[in-house]
Specification:
The protein is built from 9 helices and 14 strands. It is α/β, with parallel strands linked by helices and 340 residues long. It comes from Spirosoma sordidisoli.
Length: 340
């Protein structure tokens, strides 16, 4: 099976065009309530396992929700879940349907960026509702937020592990409307010092600003398009999976050359899962080396290790919502609810 990484590596980098888009006022979706219906879509890779879909539906039902599959949910076109027009039509239809309160991607893969020119942004603007996902879904989260002002949600896809940690953060943000404080676990377990999910401060400080972000690879491949937000004074959060250290270096260099990094007020690097040195071994730079080299000179508060990414226990993080970030403590605090 082709992976998101192998596909995106074959894609030419977009030119660094500048789009004069006036930032839109943030529109908050309605909170999710028991009895509401979740529209499940496959905007990227196909749904290969019907059992996995059943587990997703049962998990959402266990939270008091109903589910509905998009018309083209089980379509297949090579490594995509059907033709672009049909996948985009499913997303548009879910936003248009008054009986759907949340649109959730079943999983990522590759293909969401192909849908951006085909979405009906005026329809979405008239029917704001929750849009949730991560990984390749970053393209939809950023594109729709940029074009409509809708606060989208970087959170679990349907196929995520719906354990107590992930469900708790999901409920508190989009069902209870709580201005949560995102803080990594601090349990030591059977060791004298904490070994898992540690945070480390790249540059200390506290800053406030709207949150934007998502998957680093997908975000980089949107640069130069009309589907990326105004980066000025934003707190950027990024994550990735299965990337060599040199690839992370290359992408952060891309953000720097595109003028993104020097516009930010703060930066949170989440988890880079399975991001080792590759064949370079100990001759490679480390991830810490790369982050310090690129982020340290920005003179903005920054930390790494947040529970954002391709991991089992994950935060649910809204895009476009104001937050305060304390890099020394490794905390992100929402300053307002993400939903109404």
């Amino acid at each position: 099976m082709l992976t998101r990484r192998s596909l995106l590596k074959t894609t030419a980098l977009a030119p660094f065009a500048t789009y004069d888009q006036k930032p839109l006022a943030t529109v908050k979706p309605a909170r999710l309530k028991p009895g509401d219906t979740v529209g499940l879509v496959c905007p990227a890779a196909p749904a290969y396992s019907r059992e996995e879909v059943q587990v997703t539906q049962e998990s959402l039902v266990a939270m008091g929700l109903k589910t509905r599959l998009a018309p083209h949910f089980y379509d297949r076109y090579g490594y995509l879940a059907g033709r672009d027009a049909d996948r985009a039509a499913d997303v548009n239809a879910m936003f248009a349907d008054p009986d759907i309160q949340m649109v959730m991607a079943m999983h990522g893969g590759w293909g969401c960026a192909r849908l951006l020119p085909l979405l009906d942004y005026e329809l979405i603007r008239r029917n704001p509702k929750l849009l949730v996902g991560y990984s390749d879904i970053t393209a939809l989260l950023l594109g729709i937020h940029t074009k409509t002002g809708l606060a989208t949600i970087h959170g679990p896809v349907g196929s995520a592990t719906w354990n107590s940690y992930t469900v708790d953060r999901f409920r508190r943000v989009i069902m209870e409307g709580e201005p949560v404080v995102y803080e990594n676990p601090t349990e030591k377990g059977d060791t004298l010092a904490q070994t898992d999910d540690r945070i480390w401060t790249i540059r200390p400080g506290t800053v406030r600003g709207p949150l934007v972000g998502g998957n680093l690879t997908v975000l980089c491949h949107l640069l130069g398009s009309a589907y990326v937000p105004d980066w000025r004074n934003k707190i950027l959060f990024i994550e990735d999976v299965s990337e060599d250290i040199y690839s992370v270096d290359r992408m952060l260099t891309h953000l720097k050359l595109a003028g993104v990094l020097n516009q930010l007020s703060g930066l949170v690097f989440g988890k880079c899962t399975r991001c080792g040195p590759g064949s370079g071994g100990y001759g490679s730079l480390t991830l810490e080396d790369v982050l310090i080299e690129h982020i340290g000179p920005l003179n903005i508060p920054a930390f790494a290790g947040a529970m954002i990414g391709h991991i089992t226990d994950k935060f649910t993080v809204p895009i476009g919502i104001n937050a305060e970030m304390d890099a020394e403590k490794g905390l992100i605090r929402l300053l307002e609810p993400a939903v109404v």
